[in-house]
Amino acid sequence: METLEFIIYPDGRVKEMVTGIVGRSCEEVTRKIEEQLGNVVSREQTSDFYAQSTHQASTVDAQNQATYSDWG
């Protein structure tokens, strides 16, 4: 599940936490919100940022695919 959580401190600082979004797409999701909030002072990436999406497509060239009988 994708979530964005905001903590607003009494001095006006806002802490934004994003969970459930894999890779750099979290930056796309939060870009417009951050533009409206003001200057970004710091960023800390979570392990989700560095993870790769499990929905990656893969293709196999049928001519190069070995079968059990080709192993000899």
User: Roughly how much helix do the residues carry, as a percent range?
Assistant: 10-25%
- Looking at the structure, what is the overall shape? elongated
* Lateral strand order in the biggest sheet: 1-2
Radius of gyration: 21 Å
Series of secondary-structure elements, N-terminal to C-terminal = EEHH
Biggest beta sheet summary: 2 strands, antiparallel
Distance between the termini: 47 Å
Share in β-strands: 15-25%
Number of strands: 2
Overall structural class, as computed from helix and strand content, comes to alpha+beta
- Point out poorly predicted stretches: 56-64
- Average pLDDT rating: 77
Number of helical segments with 4 or more residues: 2
Question: What does this entry look like structurally?
Answer:
This protein is α+β, with helices and mostly antiparallel strands and 72 residues long. Helices cover 24% and strands 17% of the residues. It has two helices and two strands, in the order E-E-H-H. The chain has helices at residues 25-37, 47-50; strands at residues 3-8, 14-19. A hairpin with a 5-residue loop joins strand 1 (3-8) and strand 2 (14-19). The longest helix is centred in the middle third of the chain and has 13 residues, at 25-37. It is elongated. The model is unreliable at 56-64 (pLDDT under 50).
